[in-house]
Amino acid sequence: MDLTDQEFSEAEARGVALREKGYATAARYDHKANRLIISLHNGVEMTVPVHLIQDLADAAPSQLSTIEIAPSGLNLHWPEIDADVYIPGILAGTFGTKSWMAKLPNKVKQL
Fold it and tell me: How far, in whole angstroms, is CA 66 from its chain's centroid?
């Protein structure tokens, strides 16, 4: 599929707009608390229980320690389980598909 210059420029602008809302500069797995800790570009650090994140919920703790951050800072990747987490989704309180989110406790769905 070939992109026109205009389509490329529009996609690039969307990426810039997403990064302005927040992107990861660091991420780590806290084994003791079973939580993902994400440091954002603005100094905010957020913590999410791993059992809430669809692609990580069933992973073994040993599989969660290696986390790669995409150059854009908009995605986290776990190579051992080939799982990805989209930072704008996490910031919006979306931890998986609609069906996954429907199964979560009501207080989580209200984020």
Answer: 14
